[in-house]
User: Fold these one by one.
Assistant:
Number 1:
Amino acid sequence: GAVVSQHPSWVICKSGTSVKIECRSLDFQATTMFWYRQFPKQSLMLMATSNEGSKATYEQGVEKDKFLINHASLTLSTLTVTSAHPEDSSFYICSASKGLPGFEQYFGPGTRLTVT
Amino acid sequence: GENVEQHPSTLSVQEGDSAVIKCTYSDSASNYFPWYKQELGKGPQLIIDIRSNVGEKKDQRIAVTLNKTAKHFSLHITETQPEDSAVYFCAASFYGKLTFGQGTILTVHP
């Protein structure tokens, strides 16, 4: 086991609207969940780390008011991109960790966001 | 913060050959070093990992070596197959966030 799902797998939205992406650990309880962004032909960049029931910790340069993260339960974390703009178009990937943080992160399949 | 350098950026091999990808890290406190395979349009898949108290780990055709003194670790794939073609990322972590290398595009020619 250790399966992580994301929904939706792709989404197109208009500039100025908000989009919510869900990340679920299907067969384990995730003590920590991570959100990454990946631009074409680039590496993964960590956006934020979240623990169930507490506020997310954002990486330097990531606008926390624009990228809202909620970790409501040990199996669900959501990322909301508020007032999306074309430059927010990217591949968003979540991961989940069980047990000690930093060991064995299991990644979701990713969500392709296109803002028109 | 941690910085991970990965080389080469692209690697082309013939089926059956071996492939080696190397990474260096900057933070001596890092204690977990995973390798991920990412296919186009998909999330990264963990293929092998190693902790700082181990020097080498092998899983069938895949092996990873770690040199803590030199702060570098390597991925070795033997008997490569066309389905090994993908982007490979190394990463380093200290009880928390992963810092990824830039990625290596591996192409295995039949």
Number 2:
Amino acid sequence: GNSVTQMEGPVTLSEEAFLTINCTYTATGYPSLFWYVQYPGEGLQLLLKATKADDKGSNKGFEATYRKETTSFHLEKGSVQVSDSAVYFCALDSGAGSYQLTFGKGTKLSVIP
Amino acid sequence: EADIYQTPRYLVIGTGKKITLECSQTMGHDKMYWYQQDPGMELHLIHYSYGVNSTEKGDLSSESTVSRIRTEHFPLTLESARPSHTSQYLCASRDSGRSDTQYFGPGTRLTVL
């Protein structure tokens, strides 16, 4: 079956630090990959996505590259801000008519001034 | 901008009460979902619907029920609330493309005393 494994948190960083949140996946076929973000008290919102191997998704300074050879989709940001404090979810859509996302367990990021 | 709404945002209720959590979307999406989010932030799919008069149970067994009489409306009902139902409930919808974004509502935080 499909699965997503992401690094456990919580992660605490100082403002302007470099961020990496690791995400690896197991899936049959050619999944699409997503990062969602959940700010305190809100629902999830799409941060970025990639639909095929070697694609790079980017948004708000965050980036992730779809690496088929390592089955990974690590999230990175060069300089985090306090406003980036949130829970980040890696997810995959296996396609093949399933229409369901498989989520990782989430990684809580806290950025301190 | 996602147009998916959930009401109420917060609900505190006594054991044994019947409750309905509302979810509506104005995007015309045929696919809708309910997730339960535990305190550790992990998401669990409890119900989904791929169109009017179509509902299925998700991966996590739930005592709640859902209905889909109109495309835009996907309410979740608990006939007799219990403290074990205390949780965050998130509604989501998406279109039918292979890598289409799944949009989330802001969530309902339910507390059963």
Number 3:
Amino acid sequence: GQNIDQPTEMTATEGAIVQINCTYQTSGFNGLFWYQQHAGEAPTFLSYNVLDGLEEKGRFSSFLSRSKGYSYLLLKELQMKDSASYLCAVASGYSTLTFGKGTMLLVSP
Amino acid sequence: GAGVSQSPSNKVTEKGKDVELRCDPISGHTALYWYRQRLGQGLEFLIYFQGNSAPDKSGLPSDRFSAERTGESVSTLTIQRTQQEDSAVYLCASSLEGAGGVPGKRETQYFGPGTRLLVL
């Protein structure tokens, strides 16, 4: 079966750094995606990892360890607009993406 | 337009009526997906199209739900005899390629704005 785990909620303050973890157990692995979803809006693509290591894109970075079934999304210099749900999703090569339930991040002043 | 579009954006219907939701994927994207998202919940996979065929429709919750895709483009999701539990946001996504291909960003799914369905 497919299983994706991520924390339900996290809080952080403006300007800080936050790390959102995701662990997965899937049959097959074709890559891991992170999406951002603001309340009432559709998810938007943030990052993709298929090889071990860190992918950096501006204030956001995503890390993958395939042997550990583990990824994290790192957000630096947090801004109020970063308050959103962050979805981890795995492509297992069998069917569509399997999404985690999302981590709701609240950034406070 | 450049992105995925869905219509209607909002739909209010009475219990027992049929509804049809439409999705226009990004031009050239071969794969199309339907998801359901209840208030405060995660994404629930419904069905996946590769071209006009549906290799995976395991997420359809009951036989009241059906979907089709024509011309490797537009897709419609039909819910018959709607129930109050069907109230949710129905999201459509498309990707350049479908599952099972060479790993890469070509599987990246791009989402439409969703249809908010309320069954009274």
